[in-house]
Write a structure and sequence with these properties.
By secondary structure, this protein is α+β, with helices and mostly antiparallel strands. The protein contains eleven helices and 13 strands.
Length: 373
């Protein structure tokens, strides 16, 4: 059995950003055109008029001010309102692979590792662009890594679940080091014509190097003190897009083939579950909540994170205790908590404790306790 560390994190940020004002302008143009085109049916009561959005509504509801995206033009086109991402030939690296490689190279540089030092690749994300071959095997080939690769999906919790899977393999001696990557094009499954959710997601990719502690040389090391995962089935966050859609043609374009959620139910259900899991995980490791200097929480909604921190600490979190990146990145699904870790860890002193936590569809919740070298 080997001790295990995170020795490097990496981040790929798309070049394009969309502000709330830009998103609202596009959405409201669509709403105005829809209401004009359906004026007679709306007047007769056969069709419901759509309501406009606003930047103030978005920021109050979520804390989001902007988001990075792989394609901006298609999203902001009121006649399209979806990213425009052409298919690539089978002889080209896929777009998820390209994002993953960008984040992976950053993480490998921080960890001081080359492809020859890594024995496995895990791609853990919410939305995979195809059924097979695995994107992880493609990333493995693109980086020249030998060994194995596989994909996994636990929605927004994919990164913490991926860290546990990687840590287990390293701890048991099945690999010296594993690259765990989270490429997320969340805008691809977002309904930009839905007022309640059109602002939620952005795109990004993150990467984490998990390796044996006795072989780590990085200046960015965190001991993995422990991991704890839980799942509980719920339909309150769902996406029914899949290969069986072609077998039921009448439902192929239905609303549930994109992201759908019951936001208020999710908020009510998930916040206490996350706080309870983290508190229980700390207690199992003979640690107190007061011992934790930083909480890198899933970046879905600012109000959720504020409430979870308050439930754990018994007070509002101080600035820096639970850093926020969703104001500029929005919800990047599995990548969000890792972005927070990547951007907000270097100021911590040696020995400081932190908790990386994710939560999302499933419901799925993960907690990873880290101690800085």
């Amino acid at each position: 059995m080997h001790n295990v560390v995170i020795s490097g994190t990496g981040l790929y940020t798309p070049a394009n950003s969309i502000s709330n004002d830009e998103l609202v302008e596009s959405f409201n143009a669509y709403v105005q055109q829809f209401n004009a085109d359906n004026a007679v049916a709306i007047a007769s009561g056969d069709v419901d008029a759509l309501s406009e959005s606003s930047s103030g509504f978005i920021e109050k509801a979520s804390g989001i001010k902007s988001r990075f995206v792989m394609d901006k033009t298609g999203i902001l086109d009121p006649k399209r309102m979806a990213p425009s991402i052409p298919e690539r030939s089978n002889d080209e690296w896929g777009i998820l692979c390209e994002m993953a490689v960008g984040a992976a190279k950053d993480a490998m540089a921080r960890a001081g590792k080359t492809a020859a030092d890594i024995d496995g690749v895990i791609v853990a994300c919410s939305n995979l662009q195809r059924a097979y071959p695995a994107v992880a095997v493609e990333v493995q080939a693109a980086l020249g890594i030998k060994g194995f690769g596989y994909d996994m999906n636990v929605a927004c919790s994919s990164a913490t679940f991926g860290i546990q899977a990687a840590a287990n393999s390293v701890q048991l001696g099945q690999a010296r080091a594993i690259l765990m990557v989270n490429p997320e094009i969340c805008t691809g499954h977002l309904n930009f014509r839905d007022r309640d959710s059109h602002f939620i997601f952005g795109d990004a990719a993150t990467a984490v190097i998990i390796e044996r502690a006795d072989q780590a040389t990085s200046a960015y090391q965190f001991d993995i003190v422990g991991t704890k995962l839980i799942t509980q089935f719920s339909n309150n966050i769902r996406n029914n897009f899949g290969f069986l859609n072609r077998c039921a043609e009448d439902a192929a374009g239905a609303r549930d083939k994109l992201f759908v959620q019951e936001g208020r139910k999710v908020f009510k259900d998930v916040c206490p579950m996350v706080a309870e899991l983290i508190a229980a995980h700390l207690a199992e490791n003979q640690l107190n909540v007061s011992d934790v200097k930083r909480f890198w929480l899933h970046q879905a909604n600012l109000n959720m994170n504020l409430l979870i921190a308050r439930k754990l600490l018994g007070r509002d979190a101080e600035p820096g205790e639970a850093p926020v990146i969703l104001d500029t990145y929005a919800n990047t699904s599995s990548a969000g908590s890792v972005i927070a870790l990547h951007k907000y860890h270097e100021d911590l002193p040696s020995g400081a404790l932190g908790v990386l936590s994710s939560f999302g569809a499933g419901y799925s919740i993960g907690s990873v306790i880290l101690r800085k070298h």
